[in-house]
Amino acid sequence: MHREIQRMREIALVYLDRSGGLQKFVHDCKKYNDSKQSYAVYRFIISINPSDIAELDATLGNYILHNPIQAAQIFQSVCFIAIKTLSLIEPLQTEAQISILLKPTHLPPLPSYALSLSAFPFNYTSQRFYVSEGIAIAMGTVTKYTQGARFLCTEETCPFSEGFRYIRVHLPGATESATVRNDFVCSLCSSPLQEDMKFRVLGDKQIVEMIDAKVLNALKGYSNDKSHFRIQTFTVFLRDELANKMKIGNHYKIIGIPACVQNGSQATACIEVNSVQLCKPNGPSFVSDNFKYLLSMTSSSCWRFTAILANIFASQVVPPGTYNTLKLAILLSLVQTCEKENADYLDLLIVTSDTLVIDRLLNYSICLLPRGIRHPPSSEIFPSVSKDKHGTGSASIHACSAVLAKGGVCYIADLSSYKKDKLELLQSVLESRTTTVFIPGKKYGEEADQQVTISVQTNFWSFVDVDSSSKKHIQKDNFVIGQMDVSLIPPNLLDVFGLLIYDEFPSCRLSSLVPHILKKAINPEAMLYRVSQQFKMQDYEEFILFAKNLHVELSLEAESLIQGYYLASRRVRRDSVNGPTLSASALKILISLSKAHTKLSLRKKVLEEDALIAILLLESSLTLKHGKSPLCVAPNPVFPFDLSDENSLQQRDSYLRQCHHQLWTFIGAYGPGIHTRTNEE
Asked: Coil, strand, or helix at residue 265?
């Protein structure tokens, strides 16, 4: 066995030399040697490529993958000999002072190396590397742990009462009490050992709770997936350079060593992480043939494809041709979701008396995204703080619905059921796209209070039931602004939602909606319409993931139209007390709507036709909030007719061209110094 170990040491040295690891090691030694500080433990990180080292020597490669703690001792011996041979660190005395952390760049893509956070049984006793994926749903604050410590014999005449014979370093899964104890005895004279506190080495530690990404399916509220599974959070330890490498709500792939941590009478399975990699799901590079055919058949007009798309969307939930404006707004919001900072968000607030159907429609729609979350009323919308359950006494921040919906949609359901303080917090987040968590230092063992700011990168959907009698947190007096009673909604909250949509329930809709609901109640899986078979839920999922990843740019013509409308509207929409009622955020909403319509049309250049749809949707929303303007759009400006055949599509195109002309007339009359078109243009 000794001969085999010696051979692996030689191979390890060859690998370090060939991979550039030896050069990095020498550089790290120089930093330690140049430092005036005395160290009990010298810590080195060695990056290991399993493929390269297995090709060099299969035995050592297998040893690293399946016995990483023992493999680290081989590299420890190699590094100690190198330091002594090359005189790299003068104060170094014993091999025990060297702490080696092996970091594999990847693991073999085989099932035996994957650790599922939801599968049972969970193998936490093998002490070898595994790769796993999950979402960070709770994060503790960064605390200190003992990275290494020096112990001395208490018998003064013993040779081990000085020097660096007894060194304790942290091992995966070890608690603080296991690393630093008071019951060690000298191997030479059996006298008790005592820690030399001057040489204790401290490192950073952060505890993160992760959960399998399958949990997102359970939080959608509605899904075609009928499989049953049990999901439990899992504890992950980030140490030293990995502390603060994770952000709450993100999806990560980790490589680490499973362990079992004893906390009193309880045992907790955990993973000591060696590397962290952010997972970014790539959308499909295609759309279905049916969508391609529909796009080619409607290429004569920039408006027809999205009109038909809205008309037939969600035919499993509502009959085709109903709720077209709302369905178009939903599709626009779906394609305008991403995880980038300062993205173009598109929030929806629906005012309706038909809450059952609206709830079903919104629930169906969030299932088309990987991160569509239906907020359960019993939990918190935004992150909260509690004490860490692992006995450290530090604070732990828990992700809630808004953070878990990162890059997707958070559906809050009926706003009228929430109290005033929750609505004010929602308003603040919609304005800043951040939420702040306050951590009182006295309560969580810290010297000072902390404030942690968390980015909220999601679209919010909600509705208000106009027939609701729950008005406890709203001013009792009825007041009407624009064209509807908005007494259920605080005015400031109303303004920060991107689009306000009033879904009036006409009696003519009953003839198609009631039979649909009854048939679905009898047979929920039934395909009642031909379009339901042609455009299935999976087709829409692929379409939205493809469209949302398109990179679009504003054309000069579209920019001119948006700017002209915005400035003209600022002039005409104003009151004598507060000035313009059109906020600066309206310009962002216009750009976001225009880009979303372009993505939905599978184009990369925002045209005037896209900007026109955006303006009509926003003007309709402003009319509901503040009343009509001189532009004077129709009650349902984007879908003034039922789309039943080719003639109705031509009629709609003709109507939208008239709206386009009226819009330029409006800009010419009220826009300050904006170039307007002549008849010749």
From this structure: coil
**CA dihedral sign of residues 24, 26, 27, 28:** positive
Instruction: From residue 229, give the alpha-carbon distance in Å to each of 118, 119, 212, 214, 225.
Output: 8, 9, 11, 9, 11
Measure the CA angle with vertex 268, ends 147 and 396; round to 5°. 70
The tally of CA atoms less than 13 A away on the side-chain side of residue 488 is 20
For position 165, what pLDDT does the model report?
87
> Which amino acid, one-letter code, is at 149?
A
Q: What is the mean pLDDT of residues 324-337?
A: 93
Which of 238, 279, 250 lies closest to 136 in space, CA to CA?
A: 250
Rounded distance, CA 267 to CA 558, Å? Answer: 62
Instruction: Using alpha carbons, list the distances in angstroms from residue 134 to 117, 287, 457.
Output: 7, 28, 19
C-alpha 412/C-alpha 462 separation (Å) is 5
Burial class (CB within 10 angstroms; exposed 0-12, middle 13-18, buried 19+) of 139: buried
Q: Is the pTM of this model over 0.70?
A: yes
Residues 6 or more apart whose CB falls under 8 angstroms from that of 439 comprise 141, 385, 395, 397, 446, 449, 450, 451, 452
Nearest to 547 by CA among 589, 595, 512, 487: 595
| Segment 510-556, tens digit of pLDDT | 667 777 777 777 777 777 777 878 888 889 999 999 999 899 999 99
β 395-398/450-455 pair status = unpaired
Count of alpha carbons within 13 angstroms of residue 399, beta-carbon side: 29
Cα distances from 546 to residues 152, 293, 308, 312, 457, in angstroms, run 64, 16, 18, 19, 19
User: What sign does the dihedral 332-333-336-342 (CA atoms) show?
Assistant: positive
Q: How far is CA 96 from CA 82, 239, 406, 657, in A?
A: 14, 21, 46, 81
